[in-house]
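Pasting two entries for a bug report.
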Amino acid sequence: MRARKTLACLVAATTMAAAGCASLPTNSAPHVIRTFSPSETETQAAGPKDGQEPDLLLRDFYAASARSDADYEAARAYLTDAAAAAWDPNGQKLVVDNIGMTTLPGSSVGQRSYSVHGHVVGAIRQGGSYSPERGTYEATIDMEMVDGQWRITSLPEGVVLERTELRNQYQPYNLYFFDADDRELVTDRRWVHSQRETLASDLIGLLMEGPSERLRPALTGSLPSSVSYTGEQDGAYTFTGFSGVSQEERARFAAQVVWTLATAGVTGPYVLKADGEMLIDGADSLDTDDFIAASPIVESVGETTLYALTGGKVVRVGAESTQAVEGSLGSASDVTSVDIAGDGEWAAVFGAPGDAADDIFRVGTFGGRESEVMRAGTFTRPTFEPDASAVWAVADGKRILRTVQSAATDSLTTGEVKVELPEGVNGNISVLRLSRTGTRVVMVIDGHLYTGIVRRQTSGERSVVNVYEYAQELAGSVISAEWSPDGSLLVGTTTSTPVMRVEQDGSSMTAMSAGNISAPVVAVAASPSTLYVTDANALLQVPASGADNPIWREVPGLEGVRALPITSR
């Protein structure tokens, strides 16, 4: 019992959720511990078919190159010996929508050249992280007859795979790293080609490398560079180099390992050893219950309260009815947008649409104090950081503002957040929403969907970096977006597929049921159990999971009302 109590104290300290435990050390910059290489597994029987035609052989080569087993042994079987020795498949992997090929002029009986082309939709970077890309892939592949069989004699470096092969050969898994305040686990999605028997070690190897390059500005890490993973031995995952690592840091690292393995389907409990001893004193084995306070699972996030903005005021939505909230939000008639935190803090924009007067950005609490932040021609809907520690909004479509209230004096301080947009992107920001952990931001700019990473600077200021366009196929039609509790994006459009789910890394999007929805979808919201949209007619809802093609239904108490949904968090 004493070991469990000690561990609970360490975990509470890790998540800053309890007093009386050891204080947390100051974090250092993240370290790349070592280069990750998936454990080699037995290569599937694959290779050129006897007498195969050159174009079919070339297509099979591209399919085989999606498998990295044994240094791409299956793909090298399609090359001549000299080409196999010279080909370097390492580095970035390009993902294309599909691969097209055309025979080039000048081919002879024993020689053939092909122009290979495709539209680039993404790239798999070092460590398995995916990034959306846009461009054209073009390459020339030379082939010749060797001992009566066609073989590839020259090809460019790197690997190119079709989007279908990415899904066939790779599996997305979530790694978890603590946010900059060591309170919550942040998802870092990776695409891994791994056999089941080596999956645990492969995922731990990726954890040891640290966060992906894109996510790294938002996170911190504290493990020294001496720490390394030494593999699975007698049912235990073993490490070295932990002699100078505190119990608090060990508990944080253990939480990362446990949740990464558990969400990947690796069965616990988990035995973690460091330098020949248990990683955490007195803990012979660990499971997710030991780190429940840091759970990243949707169901553990906690249910939210649904509010709605209708007729210029805010109402709290009950099982079958609504009730105006306390204070000015519930009595006003000119609220145009609002965000509400779980403890009743709110940030709202007041101003009659279309009038010549400036809108007013205010913050407050239900039935309590409230203060004016500033005035501008327009504001986007405000969005809170975790625990309502700060609130963001975009003024006049361009300036991203961050407002912080002093705990000592209650005074408000507002500063501008710099954003590094891709080259050529300079339109107005109409939507800006922070993720649940505050490490990511989604923006809608001139109907295009963008996500970025929130970099925390030593001065306490924030900036938005590593911005990518997602769901490029929707370009120009996006009008609303919100983070779902599982980290994906819920997106509303003006098209015949009015609601889309976009994965957190932008690797794919899925059209959701359009039953009973009339575009445009001007607002979206999500709780762990329910999704909400406001279409051309009303506020609709559907269970977050369940039927494959559910019907969106009006929200009880708001039937026939075109209200905007707000889920507090």
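Entry 2 (this is the one that rendered wrong in the viewer):
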Amino acid sequence: MNRRPTQPSPRDRHAVLTPSHPGRPRLLRPKRVTIVGGGIAGLAAAAVLAEHGAAVHLIEREHSLGGRVRAWDLDGERTMSRGFHAFFRQYYNLRSLLARTDPDLERLVPVRDYPLVGRDGLRDSFASIPRTPPLSLAGFVLTSPSFPLRSLADVDLDTAFELIDVDFPDSYVRYDGESAEAFLDRLRFPDGARHLALEVFARSFFAHPADFSAGELVAMFHTYFTGSAEGLLFDVPDDDYDTALWAPLGEHLAEAGVRIETDTAVTALHLPERSDARAGGWSVETTKGTITSDALVLAADPRSARALLSGLESTGHEQWLSEVTSQRNAPPFAVLRLWLGAEVDPSRPAFLGTTGYALLDNISVLERFEAGAAEWQRRHGGSVIELHAYALGTAHRGRAATLAREQADRDAVADQLLADLHEAYPETADIPITARELLIAEDCALADTRPWNERPGVSAPLPGLVLAGDAIRCEAPVALMERAATTGFMAANELLAGWRVEGTPIWSPPRRGLLRRGLLGALRGRRSARDR
């Protein structure tokens, strides 16, 4: 693969570029790398390694690529996915990965608005809010019905200033042991703003705020509201994830020499026989045979990764293994996709975030942006609706949550989601359902309150091993799909650096808040100097 990808240029002049380490353009002698996991992290690592001459063998358990952002065919005209994902403009490294097959990112289409609606009737919109901080935060406060100005007197200003006084990664460490719920209690935002603009971040991590890291919450608030000029609007693929994104990328990687093996589970890992990091010798047992390689990128889902590492023979690094394998998964989530016999109200947005309902967290009207759903609508009429529920197994979800957590009564989950839909979109109560598909899964990482430095990073003390995925620690204020792409690039870079080969540059949103940069940062520095 000789063509180097074009890196999309950030709009934000404060975005941070970490240049690649120096080295040769390509490996002089081929190195064999096995990648476990064909999600975003594994695909990102595969792309960079192949571009620099590595012989990559990627193993994926499922039939299709994409990991927790995959989609699959049901009957030739209907598809199913693991739920809606927003492709924010701050996702620089994910967009760089997608640009390998779509240089102008034409397969990503903008969603004009991102309304959030509470069951109590409060509704927030981000379409008219300025993108550049601090105007973005001021615009939200001044225009949001969930944030009446009289409530400003109740806000704890010291805590509020923490939202713009950040410096990552130190700001992650600052909140060790504190939950998002505890931080929100300190902040004392009005209830409406707390639910619509803040708790939504915790729920999008499939976590209840009591279990979710305050550091991660602050990082996301910084990335979307107070620290980045990219704004809070986002793009979505113009078709299902496999058709629009992962199948083309898989073909691109295959053309570059990457061997992609799907429908294959990894059952065990074996360490190199020698401790020399250059010696190689990783052995990966799969349901179809054994693969040996010089290096290993472990980019599987969190539970699978923990199980594989737990099965390693004595390594001499038991403390590191204990920290990695003690990580927890988030509660289960549910996705209910409905094919309706009549169209929903044309005024409904393509995507709606909700709060206050028994289970429902968002509603997507898929024919508004997915070509496959639009084609189904053209043939059959009606609408294709997707309902998403986060963090089912948490106490605030009530009886339906318990049933979902135990997966003892899937019908109870589907029935409650339908009841929530009928309350949010009353016209759907009288529309017949021609088909439906329910997914309940529990394979997402939990960004809990444990110390930041105890979370696993990309580097590992075992020779030739690197980790990647959205459960993996990185210094930049990124999360979810972007953390997966970023750590995938980082994992590839670390291996390439050990072989004296250059890697790929990595972008991130600004790492410092408004109080630490520009004029405000200078004034803050002078004040700190006087205080000393």
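Dev reply: Rendering is fixed now. As a check, the viewer should reflect this: The two ends are 55 Å apart (CA to CA).
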